[in-house]
Amino acid sequence: AQTVTQSQPEMSVQEAETVTLSCTYDTSESNYYLFWYKQPPSRQMILVIRQEAYKQQNATENRFSVNFQKAAKSFSLKISDSQLGDTAMYFCAFMSQGGSEKLVFGKGTKLTVNP
Amino acid sequence: NAGVTQTPKFRILKIGQSMTLQCAQDMNHNYMYWYRQDPGMGLKLIYYSVGAGITDKGEVPNGYNVSRSTTEDFPLRLELAAPSQTSVYFCASKPGPPRGNQPQHFGDGTRLSIL
Question: Is the CB of residue A69 less than 8 Å from the CB of residue A51?
């Protein structure tokens, strides 16, 4: 079974600075997908960014980018120019290709952006 | 664009009562999921469905039942509510193959308290 580990329960960053959230996972599969979801206090689950394992190029979405290291099974999220609205819980998630396509989540990292 | 709609948003139950959490999606997605999120934790899969008439257990199915009579609806039934079922419940949906790389879309969640 796949597992996802987020080793940083809480982090904080100053507005306009850069922060990196860590995620490692364990799988024996070669084809899969990885996601970062944001959960603000409103409780919504919002997709931030996704990465296909077969792609070597790291995904980027505006201020959000990932560092995907397949051999190390590492998938970190970098947030540049942090904004107050980035304050939220961030969850790393793994999805196998095919089958149920269910998501396996880490426990999350609570990010606080300070003014 | 309704997306995934969950009702109710909040409910308090007494121990031993039963209830149904409703989930509906209007995106014609084949795959639907129920997750629960306990305090300080990531989401865990309760049940999922890959199409009308097809359901299967996830990681934490005990105490729950589901049905999938239509593509749009995927209700979650709690029988004999217990305090351990106090949680936030999320419904999600996604297209199935050949669009398997598409992310899951989440509802806004139902906060359920069992007293």
Answer: no
- The residue with greater pLDDT, A107 or B41, is A107
Query: Chain B residues with CB inside 8 Å of A101's CB?
Result: 31, 94, 96, 100
Tokens read off for A103: 């998501």
| Binary contact (B50, A103; C-beta < 8 A) | no
* C-beta of residue A112 within 8 angstroms of C-beta of residue A95: no
CA dihedral A73, A77, A78, A83 (to 10 degrees): -170
Burial (CB < 10 A; 0-12, 13-18, 19+), residue A83, is: exposed
Nearest to B76 by CA among B106, B48, B43: B48
Q: Taking Cα atoms as reference points, which of A29, A37, A47 lies closest to residue A99? A: A29
Closest CA to B107 of A42, A98, A83, A100: A42
Q: For domain A3-114, which architecture applies?
A: Sandwich (2.60)
Please give the Cα distance from A40 to A17 (Å, whole number). 19
Per-residue pLDDT tens over the stretch B5-58: 999 999 999 999 999 999 999 999 999 999 999 988 889 999 999 999 999 999
B-contacting residues of A 42-81, CB under 8 Å? 42-45, 47, 50, 52
